[in-house]
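Limitations

Structures in this collection are predictions, not experimental determinations, and the ligand pose is part of the prediction. Treat each record accordingly. The example that follows, with nicotinamide-adenine-dinucleotide as the small molecule, is included so readers can see exactly what is and is not provided: the inputs are given verbatim, and the output is the predicted complex.
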Amino acid sequence: MKDYKIALIKGDGIGPEVINEAQKVLEALSINQDFSFQFEEYLMGGCAYDKYQNPLPEETINGCLKADAVLFGAIGGNKWDNLPRELRPESGLLKLRKNLEVFANIRPAIVFDELIDASTLKSEVIRGVDLVVVRELIGGIYFGEPKGREGNKAYNTMVYTIDEISRIAKVGFELARSRRKKLCSVDKANVLDVSTLWREVVSEIAKEYPDVELTHQYVDNASMQLILNPKQFDVILTSNLFGDILSDEASMLTGSIGLLPSASVGEKAALYEPIHGSAPDIAGLGIANPIAAILSASMMLKNTLKETTSANKIQKAISKVLKDGYRTKDIASFGAKEICSTSKMGSLIAEYVKKEQ
Ligand code: NAD
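Predicted complex:
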C-alpha cells in the first residue's frame, strides 16, 4: 500500500474553498486502491501573516520539502495590500518557490468541448487547442540583481545563466517528446542579450532531442500567434517574465480562469496549484469554480505520483459533469442545466470518480 504525503496549503480567499474540493476528490479516488493520501496542512500568505507576522513560516517550507507533493490554493487579498513588500502574501509564494527550487512552471491550456463557447474567440479557432506553456520560474527579471530605486529612477535586471536555461529547456523538450514533439522557444533575441544566450542554449540542447521539432518566435509575435492560430503550438518554452504574460493569455483561450491547473516542479519538490488568485470578490460565497484546483490534483497524480490511470479518471469525471450540464456561476452561460455551488461541483466530480472505480 503506497501512502502519499501531500502538503496542503489552502491559503486565503477562495483558496480553502477550492482545495477542500480537490481533497474530497482525492479521497474518493483512493477508495479501494493500492494507495492512500496523508494530508498535512500548512499556512502561507495572509493567513500565515495574521498568525505569525510572517507570510511563509519555516514550518511550511520544511513540511513541503518532506512531502511527496504540495497542493496549493491561492494567497492574497486587500487586507494585506498595504504591508511592506516582504511581508505581503505574494512574497511568501515567491519565497516558497525559491526555497523549493521549483524552476519549471507548467501550464496546460486545454479547451473542453462542452465549454467551447466560453472563449471570447471563435469556436473554429480554439476547438482542439491543446498546448502547454513551460515557464522558467525562479530566475530572470523577477529575481535579478541589482534592482532598486534611486532618486528619479528604478531598475530591475534580467539575468540568465547557461545552466538555468539548459535545465528549463530540458523540461520543455522532455514534455514535447511525450506529446506532439513540437517545441516553440519564445524570446526577444532581436533586442536583448539575455535572449540571444537563451536562443543559443536552447538550440544546443535541441541536438539531444532530434525527434522534437524546434522553432523560435519573438515574444511580440508569439503573443499575436496565440490569438491568431493557437493550434500551431504544442509546447511553448519561455522565460519568467514572458511566460507570466503568455500563460495568462493562453489560459484565456479556454474561457475561464477557474478551469486551469499548473505545476511548478524542480529536483527537490513539486507544487501544484490553480492558476487563479484568491478572488476576494467572491470569497466566502461558495460560488468559486473548483475545477482548476481539482485538475491541479490530477496533474499531481500524473506528473509526480505517476498514478496516470487515476489522473485520467479525474479528467473523465470533469468532462462527464460538464457534459451533464452542471456549471459553477463563472461558466453558467455555457450550456448550464444546473448552476451549482463550489461544494456541489466537488461532490459531483467525486461521485463520478467513485463510479469509475
Ligand atoms: P484572481 O484570479 O483572484 O481573480 C480574477 C477574477 O477571476 C475575479 O473576478 C475572480 O472572482 C475570478 N475568479 C478567479 N478564480 C475563480 C474561480 N476559481 N472561480 C470563479 N471565478 C474566479 O485575480 P486578482 O483579482 O487579480 O487577484 C486577487 C488576489 O489574488 C490578489 O491579492 C493577488 O495578488 C492574488 N493572486 C494570487 C495568486 C496565487 O496565489 N497564485 C495568483 C494571482 C493573484
